[in-house]
Specification:
The chain is mainly alpha-helical. Helices cover 79% and strands 0% of the residues. The chain starts with a helix and ends with a helix.
Length: 78
Amino acid sequence: MSITEKEFDEAVDLFAMPGWKTLMEDIEDQLDLCTIDACNTLEDLYFSKGRAAVLRMILSYEDYVRNTNEEDVDYGLQ
């Protein structure tokens, strides 16, 4: 999936905001809380798995955007 130049520029602006780093640190802390030890039931386990998947997706958003842009640039040079 590719993103537009405008979307890329807006995302880079977002990553430069002071709150972005704080948000990523908070999400990492939340991800650390998603442990099997915290699950008492099968429902807790499934909820924790889903929560961890969403948190990982958010944490990887910056890499996704930057890698997508690099791939677009690489293809444009060929």
